[in-house]
Amino acid sequence: MTALLQILFDALSLGSLYALAAIGIALIFGVMRLVNFAHGDYISFCVFALLWPSIEATAFVFAGQLPPYLLIPVILTVGACLSMLSEILVFRRFRNANPATMMIASFALGFVIKYTLLMLFSSRPKSIDLWPSLSLPVEIFDARIPLLQVITIVITIVILIALVAFLKRTRFGLEMRAAAENFTMARMLGVRANAVILLAFAISGMLAASIGLILVTQTGTVDIQMGSSVMLVAFIATVIGGLGSLPGAVVAGFLIGGVSVLMQVILPFDIRPFRDAFVYGAVIAVLIWRPNGLFMPRSAKQRV
Amino acid sequence: MIANALTSVDISVSFEGLKALSAVNIAITRGAVTGLIGPNGAGKTTLVNVLTGFQTATQGHVAMDRVVLDSAPAHRIRHLGIARTFQSGRLFSDLPVLDNLAVTGVGLGLSRGDSEARAAAMLDWMGISPLADRIAGSLPYTDERRVAIARALMLEPKYLLLDEPAAGMSAAEGDDLVALIRRIVAEIGCGVLLIEHNIGMVLRICDHIYVLDSGEIIEDGTPASIRTSEKVRHAYMGTQADAEGEIL
Fold first, then answer.
1. Min CA distance, A289 vs chain B (Å)?
2. Which of A181, A251, B202, B229 allows an S-S link to B35, with CB 3.0 to 4.6 Å?
3. Going from the N-terminus, what domains does chain B have, and what CATH number goes with each?
């Protein structure tokens, strides 16, 4: 029972990260048909925003010293601004380009962000102790669960509820859903295209920032590669979920997180290092079974 | 130019040298139903595209209530009070019917609550309130058409352009549509342009009919005069198989 609870929390907290990242990607794909591969680098950028630029091996913590009630909004703002800036400076120019061109542009932007970080901070991972108290375990039904896991899950649930409320209840949410389905038609009906797209980028950037904060607290290291691995899994989650489907992205994110943790537990010890091969094998199986993902939006069916 | 009318003045459109429309003049009068008929490929949809800013005219211009609309983009034209429907419904198929209508309200600058209230009132006026929560993509063809018209009406247009609204409808459904168009003209007072292949319906409901063939208006007049026009009969018999000729 205790072990089971432990596995459950591991799965949920890992799934939370993937789900948050997958939504960030699915939101942008929805309004622009852009798979934004720079998303992972937004995550890294937000983490590095905690530090003062230096190529020393030791981290020179700067914004990271702020109290949480200031630090969190600052980092969320950094994420939102970076994301909106990339829309204004880069993606806006590709609005009418085909998806492949936009995707390559996003790769290029990702490289620019990554190598800017490399120049400012060097490629060495640095350690940083952000909110060490969160690593302490709490007891839930005799299981000792790291407080951070509980917080990650709770925050994810809060973010998901807020996002659903935003999309379902506000004027911007309706505009975004309409634009995600048929951009030209939405524009024709008076939806403010630029504002909607910019807002989607802002939300996506804030999601990247929250992932960054969770990751850095979890691992205690800062590394320019840290966003990329999450981005890869999140991208796969958006594909499995059905590109453009937000519920699909969330479900698939949790699914991949769950399968990863489960494999870690049930695979024989010797082949555990190859866990990811099994996870991606499962991904391939799902895509053979449902090539368009688990939740394909109706609009996507018509477009084919 | 005519007051209280949407007019096309000497509109010509050519696609890479191929003339789709040549010097077309039509007037859609407020408070009346204007018909536009013609064989397939005559240029009917192209004309609607020009009138609604989806397509720029090579020559000529569009005027609304004596004001020339200088190649305004489509989303501006909607705000001036010209709404249209498409041959395919083009609803947001993942959204509920109510939200499909509310998008227009939000686009006009209303709050979410206000636009939903207005959308509900519009569905009520159309007599399709039970459809409000249905996902648009799951609607049968006829309902989809009605929702598309409701969404166009959300704009409170002065002119409503309906592109083949009866396509695929049964006779009874066609009768409902005729009644609806009459109500739109009588109660909202807009000018309706009806593009239809169902010529019986056009003759029954329109006050004035234009016949377009190969990009030119070959005849216009009252239903009675169109019915007996030799030119119209010739155009239909000449360019298309017997099917269309029989309808006439």
1. 23
2. B202
3. 5-85+152-247 (3.40.50.300), 92-138 (no CATH)
